[in-house]
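thread: overnight batch results

M.L. [08:02]
morning all. the overnight job finished for the chain we discussed friday. pasting input first so we're all looking at the same thing
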Amino acid sequence: MKKILKLYQKNLIFRYTTTFLITILIFSMLLIAEKTIPNGSVKKNIVRSESYYQEYYKQLFGNINTIKNRHTMIDVPGDLAHLSILYLEDNKHPISGFIEMNRDSKLVEKVKYSGSLSNMTIDSDYSRYWHGHLIILKPLLTFFSMKTISALYFILLSIVFLWLLFSLLKHSKLLAIIFTISAISVNFFFVSRCDNFTHVFMISMIASIILIKMYERKSTKYVDLVFFIGGMLTAYFDMLSCGTLPVTLPLFIYVYLHMIRGKKLSLKKIIQYIILWFLGISLTYVAKWIILVIHYHGGFKEHVLEPMKVRIGTGGGRRINVFLESIHLGLNFIFPYGLYIFKFIVIGMAIISFIYLILEKKKRTYYSYFIIICLIPFIRYLILSEHSDYHNYFTYRAFLPVIMFVLLCIYNAFIKIKKVLLKK
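M.L. [08:03]
and the structure it wrote out:
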């Protein structure tokens, strides 16, 4: 056992391979177990959730400003996809059910026009995703409707948020403040209203808390696994909502803690953590697709490639135009809403502040790391251009660390200029 532990600590290939295989096995077994749970009570609570979604649509389309600004929009299609998967389970074929994730793709239209959630039929599958949400959602739906589950999500998010906030306060009041302001600006707590939004924020905050604990204990032995497993969890739970947060938020906080203490952190480590997170996501998706292909005896094109074309969109100049438009529109969702001139002024101040701050050699390296971190959501927006544009009412929240960096630059530049003026 000691030899295996030493090998796990020293041999990176062995470490990541065993971690990946064990985690994938756990992911699969949890979803297979979920498919064996009788869904009689689940069906009743899904039907009881009709009013929750119908009321949402009444509010959304009953207020012209809400339609225009879309600040209160949630990913109802994502939620209803999960509900239809659970409702349509037969509990007799758990392995095929875990792979296929059969659903009713017309459920959104049925609910929108006051249709019943009990009127579901299988018309497609959702096999390209893992749908890890279901291992949490199904047990909750056994006892509660979606309205109550939303309230529970809000409580859980608030508890973890406060836990992270107090952890940050131990090291930096400034970091705690800019995190809070940035979270409010992206309507952080509103994500609890949507099952599809909640989990990626939980993963991001829990990973951040774990890294802070590691930093406090001066233990860097398994920091790499936080990002690798974080990437795997993102692929398991997320449906392309704010999937970059589990790497950008924890890494931003980790770099900042090193900066304020003047501790060394190499560029090699930063790149390593980002690559490991990306590998975690990519390999986890590939694992699901391999299982899918084995089950369907092929079918990769129709089950994965064709649906992905909608997410990635067109190439060339069109992609750039969609990307720029999405970024511009995304500014509208960030509080304070609208006020483009004010936001462009703030962005301009941040750019000037950043240029001023990197003149200081001691912290230049850390600010360059922040830039690398902040580029990640932009790259995601560019690659998944059509998806980011169509779903911009929730994908903009991925820019939370970018807002944190903007505030950090402006504040630190102001303090630095103030000190220089006082000396004179």
